[in-house]
């Protein structure tokens, strides 16, 4: 799947000259947490989100005057930037200008990695440098929810084939079990072996559960026995 398949369109947008009050009303009326900011030519020049409006003098949520030593450590540049963020009248004063965008053909994996790496919640989607949609974390969650569940009642695999499929699913991982530690009977997977951590055990079980045709997984995995020194 690509950005084109899950993006929200049409996109609610605003401009740098829009007032903070009008921008807040747009977010509230459309029940969204952020939106792109477009200039007169239709170019994306920023993003404004709930986070940009979290601390405002109008609601009494601004930082106000802090202790002198905190202001001293912060420096004048940071103090001035915070003042603009809390008192600015227009979207252009408070929006985030470093916009990270994606192309409509960007795969979902790249989008998820991008959101996580930059700790952002949404990215504008462009086609030939023009805004055509927006993908947020909620779009990725909805895509996951829309995927059909595997048919665990399917009998297209026999036990031997299921065992081979599980071993193949584990292949390449350092925590994988050898084939001799995987047994399948009537679609139920039995896992035997020694593991180093609970996380390894859970990963092995998840890999087995994801194989189409598996009806259940029973873990008999154990931790190594530590014999205390005499």
From TrEMBL:
GO MF annotations in UniProt: IMP dehydrogenase activity
Keywords annotated in UniProt: CBS domain, Oxidoreductase
CDD domains: CBS_pair_BON_assoc (cd04586)
Domain CBS: 7-63, 95-152
InterPro entries, per the entry: BON_dom, CBS_dom, CBS_dom_sf, Diverse_CBS-Domain, UCP036990_CBS_BON
Ranges for domain BON: 158-225
UniProt key word ATP-binding: no
Pfam families: BON, CBS
EC class (word): oxidoreductase
EC number, as in UniProt: 1.1.1.205
Annotated PANTHER family: CBS DOMAIN-CONTAINING PROTEIN CBSX3, MITOCHONDRIAL (PTHR43080), REGULATORY PROTEIN (PTHR43080:SF26)
Name this polypeptide is given: Inosine-5'-monophosphate dehydrogenase
Organism listed in the record: Paraburkholderia solisilvae
Classification of source organism: Bacteria, Pseudomonadati, Pseudomonadota, Betaproteobacteria, Burkholderiales
